[in-house]
Amino acid sequence: MTGTLTLLNLAGYVALLLWGVHMVSTGVMRAFGSDLRRVLGRSLRHRLNAFLIGLGVTAALQSSTATGLMATSFVASGVIGLAPALAVILGANVGTTLIVQVLSFDVSLVAPILILVGVIAFKRGGRTRTRDLGRVWIGLGLILLALHLLVVAIEPAAQVPALRAVFGLVASAPALGVLIAAVFAWAAHSSVAVVLLIMSLAGAGVIQPAAVVALVTGANLGSGINPVLEGAGSGNPAHRRLPIGNLLTRTVGVAVALPLAAPIVDLLLPLDPDPVRLAANFHTAFNLVLAIPFFIILPATARLLEWLLPDRSENLQDPGTPLHLDDSALSDPHLALANAARETLRMADIVEAMLRGVIEAFQADDRRRVAEISRMDDGVDSLHRAIKLHLTRISRDGFDDEAGRRYSDVLSFAINLEHIGDIIDKNVMELAAKRVRFRLAFSDEGMEEIRAMCERLLANLKLAIAVFMTGDAHAAARLIAEKEVFRELERHATETHFGRLREGRLESIETSALHLDILRDTRRINSHIAAAGYPALDAANAARPRLLREGASGWVEPALDTGG
Predict the structure, then answer these.
(1) Which of 262, 303, 297 is nearest to 282 (CA)?
(2) Which of 132, 368, 459, 466 is positioned for an S-S bond with 31, CB 3.0–4.6 A?
(3) Strands, DSSP E only, in 149-213?
């Protein structure tokens, strides 16, 4: 019974350690996540910069997995090449060792102070960032507290026969130690937490120095498994290059370090005989020594991964994968803009499907359909990012006024489509999910108003696509006039809704807030759709004096009212 309680205490302290690491990582991400991502994205052109930025960002986040996910997203979107991204991962692996070095010293006395300061900042902080930093301090305090409790609990735990048998196997079979630590790091999603646990075991004299080396290498190996498994769902093998390259690097390190465990111990122990410091020093040395040779051969490693995992994006059914953005056309502005326009039409197709889904979402009680429509916005966002990047890379040679206007048209239409997708995802689908969750039903008249406005949006979107493709000024004037028509529809729908409220209609009372929010969001969507008409009208206004000077025949002046 005593052994069972001891193991339960040990498991609880390990859980506390994991939670502390999680709080530090999420707190830093919430406080500085966008800044760190921006720094990471701007500094990845050269391998050395990428290595140093990866080290610094991971030292702040305490999660090489989070840094790796950022780098993977940059590679997938074409922002950076594979070699600089691999350099980021090498730096991230070294960055995880810095907090381990700090915590290898006895700083448990400051744990209560960190938790106290963190709670005050979290509860009393007037700014969001202050509260997020409070979360970081609480997490650091919990890590120190958990480490102290682990040291206290490990000594009696070491006397449990089953645990002693496991540690004896690790000492006699280092490969088993690598496997055990790898499984723990995979389950915990953190090599830092597992290395800190190994340090506690070593400090209590439970494991021998050679076993420390085996367990630390296993922890490093296990933390590289999660990104590979998370990327396994991607249909494009190219998106798995970075996590597989990271796992390959760590596997080579384990294969080299494990047979040399005894010489490594002999080399590191004279530097500091403390077993805790041995674990921390080997963790740092393992990642630093591994980074040096792989940093030198990064271009060759990138080429090998590209050969092993070819890009198969053209065969994907993912609607968010660009199909028409051809890099070879970037030197010809007109051709490159035509490709971007084709991709923008694919964005419009997804938005049209989302609008059709809005009607279904409010008519049926299907949570899965609501979630499916929300996920479609991911495709809109992916295409929007790809189009923007493509536009920024178009050559300026031969970039005449016509190309400049088309550049602006494509960018403006893509931005408006992305906004529409966000409104449907973050606002309209939230309302649909709320309706399903609380089993609410609109009145027949209210549902008919929503359906009519959504169908009007679909018709206006088709008109906007036609304007975008042809630049027809008459169609553009009709599209912009729809803004006033839609305002009138919203006003009429609001008045009739309040009429039903005055009549005491129960279904209208229950869904009043939802109904009014939907009317507001449909008007916002229509405003973004109608914005596609302004470039065509501006172009027609600019061309009218020239056509009159040239005596153009057959010119019929459209109603060029550009008022909103």
Answers:
(1) 262
(2) 132
(3) none
* Main-chain phi, psi angles of 223, to 5 degrees: -70, -15
In angstroms, the CA 213 to CA 215 distance is 6
For 447-504, what is each residue's pLDDT tens digit?
A: 898 999 999 999 999 999 999 988 888 888 999 998 888 889 889 989 998 998 888 8
DSSP state of 318: -
Q: Do the Cβ atoms of 249 and 290 come closer than 8 Å?
A: yes
CB atoms within 10 A of CB 535: 20
Structure-block tokens of residue 44:
């990845």
In 3D space, the residue among 471, 490, 492 whose CA is nearest the CA of residue 482 turns out to be: 490
Q: Is the dihedral of CA 68, 72, 74, 79 positive or negative?
A: positive
Residue matched to tokens 């990138």: 302
For residues 85 and 68, give the distance between their C-alpha atoms in angstroms, rounded to a whole number: 8
* pTM of the shown model: 0.59
Q: Which residues contact 100 (CB under 8 A, 6 or more apart)?
A: 192, 195, 196, 199, 280, 283, 284
The Cα–Cα gap between 12 and 310 comes to 45
Q: Are 91 and 55 in contact (CB under 8 A)?
A: yes
What residues have CB less than 8 Å from 460, skipping those under 6 apart? 479, 482, 486, 526, 529, 530
Q: From CA 96, how far away is CA 63, in angstroms rounded?
A: 7
**pLDDT tens, residue by residue, 1-15:** 565 776 787 788 888
DSSP for 228-239 reads: HHHGGG-S-GGG
C-alpha 151/C-alpha 146 separation (Å) is: 9
The Cα–Cα gap between 435 and 450 comes to 14
**Given pLDDT bands bounded at 50, 70 and 90, which one contains residue 315?**
very low
Token code pair at residue 254: 């384990």
CB 130 within 8 A of CB 120: no
If you ran DSSP here, which 8-state letter would residue 315 be given?
G
3-state secondary structure of 279: helix
Q: Which residues of 88-102 are buried (b: 16+ CB within 10 A; e: fewer)?
A: bbbbbbbbbbbbbee
What pLDDT score was predicted for residue 248? 92
CA–CA gap between residue 488 and residue 452 (Å, rounded)? 13
Q: Going by C-beta distance under 8 Å and a sequence separation of 6 or more, which residues neighbour residue 428?
A: 358, 361, 518, 521
Picking from 341, 334, 447, the residue whose alpha carbon sits closest to that of residue 398 is: 334
Q: What are the distances in angstroms from CA 95 to CA 70, 358, 378?
A: 15, 46, 31
Q: In this predicted model, which residue has the larger pLDDT, 198 or 81? A: 198
Cα–Cα nearest to 355, from 433, 428, 426: 428
Could you tell me how many residues make up the chain? 564
- Side-chain-facing half-sphere of 148: CA atoms under 13 Å: 13
Q: Can you tell me the distance from the alpha carbon of 54 to that of 43, in angstroms, rounded to the nearest whole number? A: 10
